[in-house]
Amino acid sequence: MDIIAETPELKNKENWEGFIKGDVLNFLIGHNLQAITVDDGAGKKGIIKRTASGDYKVQITSNETL
Q: Could you say which of 4, 11, 34, 43 would form a disulfide bridge with 63 (CB–CB 3.0 to 4.6 Å)?
């Protein structure tokens, strides 16, 4: 049994990454924005920027207490 893979923190992290790379990215593209920053107020932050070549750069950070 892999305890790490089943922790709620890991599941929340996957949900946060999915939200940033899914809903937030789609919002950015749909509204033709250059950059967007999302902060959950609890230490997680997602930043998406469009590069000069038209690609999207995604940065996801978190502040976790162990």
A: 43
Q: Which amino acid is at 20?
A: I
pLDDT at 12: 72
Q: Which residues pair with 10 in a beta bridge?
A: none
Contact 38, 20 (CB under 8 A): yes
pTM above 0.85, yes or no: no
Q: Is the pLDDT of residue 28 over 80?
A: yes
- Phi-psi sector, 41: left (phi>0), alpha (psi -120 to 50), beta: left
Q: Which of 56, 57, 19 is nearest to 39 (CA)?
A: 19
pLDDT of residue 1: 46
